[in-house]
Write a structure and sequence with these properties.
Layout: H1 3-10, H2 18-22, E1 30-33, H3 41-49, E2 56-60, H4 73-78, E3 79-83, H5 91-95, E4 100-101, H6 109-114, E5 122-127, E6 135-137, H7 145-150, E7 154-159, E8 171-173, E9 179-182, H8 197-210, E10 216-219, H9 223-227, E11 239-240, E12 244-245, H10 250-254, E13 270-272, E14 274-275, H11 279-285, E15 291-293, H12 296-299, H13 302-305, E16 311-316, E17 319-321, E18 326-327, E19 330-331, E20 334-335, H14 342-351, E21 356-360, E22 364-365, E23 370-371, E24 373-374, E25 392-395, E26 398-401, H15 407-417, H16 420-432, E27 456-459, E28 465-470, H17 476-485, H18 488-495, H19 504-512, E29 520-528, E30 531-542, E31 547-554, H20 563-577, E32 582-588, H21 592-601, E33 606-609, E34 614-620
Parallel strand pairs: 1-2, 1-5, 2-3, 3-4, 5-7, 7-9, 10-11, 10-16, 12-14, 13-15, 16-21, 17-24, 21-25, 31-32
Antiparallel strand pairs: 6-8, 17-18, 19-20, 22-23, 25-26, 27-28, 28-29, 29-30, 30-31, 32-34, 33-34
Helix pairs in contact: 15-16, 20-21
Length: about 625
C-alpha cells in the first residue's frame, strides 16, 4: 500500500502539514532534533520560518540544516543551538560563539534526557513510512534520537519515504508520535574526504600491521579513521561494533572482509547507532538484516563494548602531548568537534579480551608547519582522553605503544613517530620538563618506514611464534631487562668481559651507532598477551669495506631451538639489501655456540686466531637470498 494512503487511512488526525505541527511549539520551548543525516530538514525549515517562535533552545547531536541559518541575525536572536558534537559545517559558527557546545560522552547523553538534567518540551525527528502494523523506523539516526523522543512530551515526526528502514531497536509505533508530517526529500549526505593520500596510505599501512584477522572494529568520527579502512582489505572475518557507519566501510562489507562471523557479541551483525554517508550507503543498510541498529546508551556503553573480544577502537585526535594526553574536541580554546564516542570505546576496548585502542593522526598540521605531537597541549585545549586511557598512537611515521609505559618511555615512543623536523625540539622540551635523562639521544631524523620490511616471524617446533623487528630507542628498559636475564657466562661470551652493568649510558652508546642500514640491531621476542619478552638480539655494523661485523645472543632457555640460525639469516637478508656482501664475527675461542652457528650457516667460512685469544670468522654470502620479511 502507498505509505501516504496508509497514514491517511490510519492516522488521519495525526497527519498534518509542517506548519500545523510547528504551531504546537511555544516560545521558550526546548526542542530536540534528530541527528545529522537523519535530521528532519523539512520540519527544521518550517520551525525557522515561524517568526512567532522566540527563545527556542535547540538540542542536537550533529547539525546540518541549521548551518544555513547561523549567520542570520534574526535566527540567532530567536534560536540558541546547543550541540553535543560540532560538525565541519558548524565549526566557524562555534569559533564565532554563535552556537553552544555540551561536552558529554555519547553513552551518557540519553541519561541526561531521562533524568531531566536536560529537559525537553518537544522532539522533531524523521522516520520511514509505517509498515502495515504501524511501525516506523528511525532509520539512519537511532543514536540519541530514541532517548530524545521518549523524554519529550511532544513528538513530531517527518515521514520520509527516502528514509531507510533499518533493523534492530530502531522501530517506533505511530502511537508514540503526536503529529506526522509526510514529506519526501533526499537525506543529508556526508562524504568523507582527506587531502593527502600519501599520509593516509602510510597510516593505513601501520594500522594494518596491528589489526589481526577476526578483530571487531569501532571506527570513530572524523575523516581520517574512515579513509584508512581500504588498507584493511587483506584482512579476514572482521566484525563491526561502532557508533557510526560511513561509506568507508562499504568496500569491506561488499568484499566480505567484514563478515562478523567471529564476533562474541551479536555475531553475524554489524552493530551501529548512526549512519552518515552517501545514498549508496543508505540503500545498502535499507532493510538489511546484516545491520543491527541500537541507541547510544547500548552501543557506546563500555561494559557492552567489552563483551566483544578483540575489540579495536580506531579514532583520531587534534594533538597528543608527550605524556599521552589527547585533545580531540578543541583547538586551544576554540571548540572544534566533540568528545563523541572516543572515551567510551577506549575504555570498552581496554576491558575487551584481546582488545586495544588506536589514536590515528597526521604528524603535522597547517601544511607541515605545526607538530600534532606536542610537549604540552595548547593553552585552553581540553583533555578529552586522559593519558591513562591511551594505548596505540599512530602517525605516518610509525606506531607508539603507550599502555603501561612510563613518562620516559612515552616520550621516546611518541618522539619516534613525530615528524622528523620536530623530533629534536620535542626531546629538548622533554629534558626541560625532566621527563627524560639529560643525555638522552633524540631518535634518528630518518624516515624509518623502510624498516617495516625488517619485520618477520619464526615458528618454533612446538608452535610458538617468535617475532623479529628492529630494536628501537623506546626499547631501552626491555633491552636492559633482557641483558640482566642472561647468565654471567653468556654475557662474557657476547661482550668479551665480565660486564656487570648495562646502564643507560651503555645503551646510549649503542643507539649512537645505529642508522638501521649500515648498523642495525634486531630483537626477537615472544608475545604473552600484552607482554613482550625479549629472547634474542642480533646486530651487525660496519667493519671493513663491504663486510659487516655480526653478533647474536639468545637467552639460555631458548637456545638450540633454531632462533639463532634464523636471526643470523634474517640479518643477512637485511645486510644484502644494504650492499654488504658478507659477514665477519669476532668470538672468544671458547664460544663454541657462536662459532658453530656461524660455520653451520657459512660452511665456507674462514677462521683465524688473533693474538688476543679470539677467533676471527668471515664469510661471503652465497648469491641469492630471500628478501627480509
Amino acid at each position: 500500500m502507498d505509505p501516504l494512503q496508509w497514514c491517511q487511512d490510519n492516522c488521519q488526525l495525526k497527519l498534518v502539514t509542517a506548519e500545523e505541527a510547528i504551531a504546537q511549539l511555544k516560545p521558550g520551548s526546548r526542542v530536540f532534533l534528530g541527528t545529522g543525516c537523519g535530521e528532519p530538514q523539512h520540519l527544521i525549515r518550517a520551525m525557522v520560518a515561524e517568526t512567532r517562535l522566540l527563545d527556542i533552545l535547540v538540542y542536537q547531536m550533529l547539525s546540518a540544516t541549521f548551518a544555513d541559518y547561523v549567520d542570520d541575525p534574526d535566527v540567532a536572536r530567536r534560536f540558541l543551538l546547543k550541540l553535543f558534537f560540532i560538525s565541519q559545517r558548524m565549526r566557524r559558527a562555534a569559533f564565532e560563539g554563535k552556537i553552544d557546545y555540551i561536552p558529554a560522552y555519547l553513552s551518557q547523553i540519553p541519561r541526561l534526557f531521562a533524568s531531566r538534567a536536560i529537559g525537553l518540551d518537544a522532539a522533531l525527528i524523521q522516520v520511514s513510512p509505517p509498515d502495515r502494523h504501524g511501525y516506523c523506523s528511525l532509520g539512519v539516526s537511532v543514536d540519541i534520537t530514541r532517548a530524545g523522543m521518549e523524554n519529550a512530551p511532544l513528538v513530531i515526526a517527518q515521514v520520509n519515504p527516502r528514509m531507510p528502514r533499518t533493523l534492530g531497536d530502531s522501530f517506533v509505533h505511530v502511537d508514540q508520535i503526536d503529529y506526522l508530517v509526510y514529506h519526501e526529500e533526499p537525506l543529508v549526505e556526508a562524504l568523507m574526504e582527506f587531502k593527502d593520500p600519501e599520509i593516509i596510505r602510510r597510516i593505513g599501512l601501520y594500522i594494518s600491521k596491528v589489526v589481526e584477522d577476526g578483530a571487531t572494529l569501532q571506527i570513530g568520527f572524523g575523516h581520517l579513521p574512515n579513509t584508512i579502512l581500504p588498507y584493511l582489505g587483506e584482512k579476514n572475518d572482521l566484525g563491526v561494533h561502532t557508533q557510526l557507519i560511513t561509506d568507508g566501510l562499504l568496500p569491506l562489507l561488499t568484499s566480505k572482509v567484514i563478515t562478523n562471523r567471529r564476533k562474541t557479541l551479536l555475531p553475524g551483525r554489524t552493530v551501529a547507532s548512526l549512519c552518515m554517508g552517501s545514498q549508496r550507503l543508505y540503500d545498502f543498510v535499507d532493510d538489511n538484516p546484516a545491520f543491527y541498529f541500537r541507541s547510544s546508551e547500548f552501543v557506546n556503553d563500555p561494559t557492552v563494548i567489552a563483551r566483544n573480544d578483540r575489540l579495536i577502537s580506531i579514532s583520531s585526535a587534534l594533538e597528543v602531548d608527550l605524556t599521552g594526553q589527547i585533545c580531540s574536541d578543541s583547538m586551544g580554546h576554540l571548540f572544534y568537534s566533540g568528545i563523541g564516542d572516543q572515551v567510551d570505546f577506549l575504555r570498552g576496548s581496554a576491558m575487551s579480551r584481546g582488545g586495544f585502542s588506536i589514536i590515528a593522526l597526521p604528524s603535522t598540521a597547517r601544511g607541515g608547519t605545526v607538530s600534532r605531537i606536542v610537549p604540552t597541549l595548547s593553552t585552553g585545549a581540553g583533555v578529552a582522553t586522559t593519558r591513562g586511557d591511551v594505548n596505540f598512537v599512530i602517525t605516518e611515521y610509525g606506531v607508539a605503544d603507550l599502555r603501561g609505559k612510563s613518562i620516559f618511555q612515552r616520550v621516546l615512543e611518541l618522539t619516534q613517530i613525530a615528524h622528523p623536523a620536530f623530533r629534536d625540539q620535542l626531546m629538548e622540551a622533554a629534558k626541560q620538563r625532566r621527563y627524560i635523562f639529560p643525555d638522552q639521544m633524540p631518535p634518528t631524523r630518518q624516515d624509518l618506514i623502510f624498516i617495516e620490511r625488517y619485520k618477520t616471524t619464526f615458528a618454533l617446533a612446538d608452535g610458538t611464534t617468535v617475532y623479529f623487528r628492529p630494536l628501537m630507542p623506546s626499547d631501552e628498559e626491555e633491552y636492559r631487562k633482557f641483558f640482566y636475564s642472561l647468565q654471567e657466562q653468556t654475557i662474557y661470551l657476547r661482550f668479551f668481559r665480565r660486564l656487570k652493568l648495562f646502564s643507560h649510558e651503555v645503551v646510549q652508546k649503542h643507539w649512537s651507532e645505529m642508522d638501521y642500514r649500515k648498523n642495525i640491531s634486531i630483537v626477537g621476542y615472544l608475545r604473552q598477551g600484552e607482554y613482550r619478552q625479549f629472547v634474542a638480539v642480533g646486530s651487525y655494523g660496519e667493519s671493513l669495506g663491504d663486510l659487516a661485523e655480526v653478533a647474536c645472543v639468545v637467552a639460555e632457555r631458548h637456545q638450540r631451538r633454531g632462533i639463532g640460525d634464523f636471526l643470523l639469516g634474517f640479518l643477512e637478508s637485511i645486510a644484502r639489501e644494504n650492499a654488504y656482501v658478507g659477514f665477519t664475527a669476532t668470538v672468544l675461542q671458547e664460544n663454541d655456540g657462536m662459532t658453530q652457528l656461524f660455520k653451520s650457516r657459512y660452511p665456507h667460512a674462514r677462521a683465524t686466531r688473533n693474538g688476543a685469544g679470539e677467533l676471527e670468522l668471515s664469510a661471503l654470502f652465497i648469491p641469492a637470498a630471500e628478501p627480509p620479511g
